[in-house]
Amino acid sequence: MPRMTLAFEDDVAVLKFNHPEVMNAVGREMLVDLAGCVADIRASKARCLLLTGEGRGFCAGANLQDDAPTDGKKRSSGSGLRASYHPILLSLKDLPMPMVSAVNGAAAGVGMSFALMADIVCASKNAFFLQAFARIGLVPDGGSTFILPRLAGWGRAVELSMLAERLPAETAHQWGLVNRVYEDTTALMSGAMELAQRLAKGPKSIALIRKLYWQTWNNSYEQQIELEAQMQDIAGSSKDFVEGVSAFLEKRDARFTGG
Questions:
Q1: 113 and 142: one domain?
Q2: How many CA atoms lie within 13 A of 104 on its CB side?
Q3: Looking at residue 20, what DSSP letter applies?
Q4: In whole angstroms, what is the distance from residue 207 CA to residue 99 CA?
Q5: Average pLDDT, stretch 54-82?
Q6: Is 112 exposed, middle or buried (0-12, 13-18, 19+ CB in 10 A)?
Q7: Are residues 227 and 181 both part of a single domain?
Q8: Signed CA dihedral, 218, 222, 224, 229: sign only
Q9: 234 and 166 share one domain
Q10: What domain range is 68 assigned to?
């Protein structure tokens, strides 16, 4: 059974962690499957990615049993991150399409990192987030120390990482980590898909907006306004811009194609 499943619903790529027996904890096989799925998404005509988990959990972090070396040789934890996780995280960051996460249960450890990478984070009321690393004597990874302070603020990020306490979905929403909270998993999946389809039907500029916001954390003000000008050149020469202006003047809904 594949540890990740990928399906395409119209222009939306629906990617699921698929090891519910261990709350979708990430092991070697899942990482291989995930890398392959991300490559397939990048090569597809999809215009939005929806990431969620099968069963009761989103992703419970690393599968500690499965991550044990099979040849008996001890490897550094950092080398495992560099070889397996980092290429996937960077590929997701650079996706040429928006990303929505639907957090249907526990999002712990690196699972929390995957959830918060999304441009729009949705969660059911029974979901929770957990920086579990300190519980087993490790430091946060998966980009947590980059994303968390920028979303929740320095103090809350440090608190979550050092105390390793559960953060309920509704509190995460109040703190700015989650965009939308839904009553249950059924409502979550319906709402998240609605958002994903809305983004998938949007103009080419949606992907450029995503790129601009990722870059803003690294750029000076001068660099960022120059990048805005570069992205505006691309957007302004797109078919979607022509369609958007025409629809506005003709007082009708725009029909964007992503071109």
A1: yes
A2: 24
A3: G
A4: 10
A5: 79
A6: buried
A7: no
A8: negative
A9: no
A10: 4-200
Residue 255, domain member (yes or no): no
* Paired strand residues for 4: 17
Provide the Cα torsion 187, 130, 213, 18; round to 10°.
Answer: -60
pLDDT at 74 over 90: no
Burial class (CB in 10 A: 0-12, 13-18, 19+), 18: middle
- Measure the CA–CA gap between 151 and 117, rounded to whole angstroms: 11
Residue whose entry in the numeric block shows the structure tokens 């419970």: 60
Residues 6+ apart with CB under 8 A from 168: 127, 128
Q: Could you read off the pLDDT of 129-179 as tens digits, one per residue?
A: 999 999 999 999 999 999 999 999 999 999 999 999 999 999 999 999 999
The pLDDT value given to residue 77: 84
Judge contact between 96 and 42, C-beta under 8 A. Answer: yes
Strand order in the sheet with 48-53: 4-9, 12-17, 48-53, 99-103, 120-124, 180-182
- Read off the DSSP letter of residue 66: T
Distance CA 212, CA 219 (A): 10
Tell me which H or E stretch contains 197: helix 185-200
**Residue 256 covered by a domain:** no
35: tokens are 């890398």
